[in-house]
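Training component of the fellowship. As part of building independent skills, the fellow (R.M.) carried out the full modelling exercise for a liganded target. The chosen ligand was EPU. The inputs are recorded below so that the supervisory panel can assess the work.
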Amino acid sequence: MDKFAIRGGIPLRGSIPISGSKNSSLPILAATLLTRERCLLHRVPDLSDIRTMLDILRYLGAEVSFSDGTVVVDARKIAGEAPYDLVRRMRASVCVLGPLLARCGRTKVSLPGGCVIGDRPIDLHLRGLEALGSRITLSKGYVVAETSGLVGARISLQGPHGSTVLGTDNVMMAACLARGTTLIEHAASEPEVCDLATFLRSMGARIRGEGTGCLEIEGVDQLHGAEHTVVSDRIEAGTFAVAAAITRGDILLEEAPVKHMESTLCALREAGVSLETEKNSLRVHATDPLRSFQLRTSTYPGFPTDMQAQFCALAATVPGRSEIADDVFPNRFMHISELKRMGASAGLSANRTVIHGVARLSGAPVMASDLRASAALVLAGLQAENTTIVHRVYHIDRGYERIDAKLRAVGADIERQR
Ligand code: EPU
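Fellow's submitted model of the complex:
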């Protein structure tokens, strides 16, 4: 298993190009199942999660190619079953459920299973698909969904922790081919949901209201092939922004999706980081002393749970008491015990951590537990004295394209060891 060896303490300087968004690309790839015609997608990042989704599309019978960020999918003939061995690798594979149901009338998709960032039920996905006129049974670890014809409905996707991103995607995709009009209330309004809506519209779908929390979808008989360029990854950009801050460096993030990053940028400003937005880029510049901060995650446009771990790493290096709560995934704090092994002073209770910054973290062997926790450990390693070894970097390869090469290009001393 690959690991990273990081020798910290170097202020990072230079430019980093931001890749296309992982969390946009995954549902958009699933949406290509909605048509018999060819789809072309550009700026798809080369990540292991993307490769898993391409394997699922191939398993289902689609012809798929992927080179230089461009994916071509031809899903003329498809079968409706996605097996455990593929689905267990990645939770996002659950978003083939809606397209397969709408296209095939019957589908059997493995339940995605447990997740280290906490309980991740799919009850809202299922409730939404049932409201569209499907029968759903759970049997031997599989979701079996059947319909004799989907029909538009009024659906609320309000859950105990706000709306659901992939649940909104699933219901929106199925509703595109339902008879009549669907209203999704408490829909997720994340930029990735909007990107999916844009792609679906270019396939001939009739969707209004994306980004507002209330989606209106007028069903059509069929969708056609389309070409689409995926938006930039706001979480990758946010992670590199924290890399500039934590090393007190100066980085230009090329193609950063600044308009999708308002809450992250607000948090950086609160910490005393200087930001300059230029056309299609963001310059992040930090000098001592930075300030402690308070954060609470919520659904978009609130502060993203996918940036929570990285800000914990930053909080561990700024003077004073910072407090960070996660209302979306209350148990997503696996990184705290690893950060403590690097000298962070942090306490955890319920869905909240209190961190007292230290001047310098100390390098240690640490274990990545999930994608964003791994990113936090790499960030901590960039600031720490001596060498940090981050084990199990396959987690980070799921969601960051060539992160080690991108960091090396701005001066980081980071080496991948096999
Ligand atoms: N929830 C329910 N019932 C459901 C679905 C979700 O109660 O049927 C709860 C979840 O347990 C959670 C909250 O609702 O407490 C939000 O979960 P959501 O469904 O929005 O998460 P997701 O769609 O499964 C996507 C991203 C995650 C990101 C979350 C929240 C993708 C592929 N994944 O997951 O990204 O954390 O939205 O923004 O888009 C990551 O990239 O590292 C990652 C985990």
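The panel noted the following from the submitted structure. Residues 23, 26, 91-92, 119-125, 159-161, 164-167, 188, 192, 305-306, 328-329, 371-372, 399 surround EPU (CB under 6 Å). The domain at 3-18+232-417 is CATH 3.65.10.10 (UDP-n-acetylglucosamine1-carboxyvinyl-transferase; Chain).
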